[in-house]
Amino acid sequence: MRGHGFLTGAYIRGNSPLHKAPVGLKVIALLLISILALSLTSTIVLSALLVVTALLYIVARLPWSRLGRTLQASAPVVVVLGAFQWWLAGPVVAWHVVAIVLCTILASGLLTGTTEHSAVLDALARWISPLRRLGADPERFALTVSVMLRSLPFIVGSFQDVRDAARARGLEHNVRARTLPVLITTVAYARQTGEAMMARGLGDDDELG
Amino acid sequence: MASLTHARARWTSTDLALIGVFAALVAASIVVPGIPVGFLGVPITLQTLAVTLCGLTLGAGRGSAAVALYVLLGTIGLPIFSLFRGGPGVLAGPSGGYIVGFIAAAAVSGLIAGRGIRGQHKASWLSAAALAAVLIIHAFGTAWFLVIGKSWGAAIAADVIYYPGDLIKGAVAVVVALALHRAFPDLLRRRR
Question: How far apart are CA B65 and CA B47, in angstroms?
Answer without folding.
Answer: 16
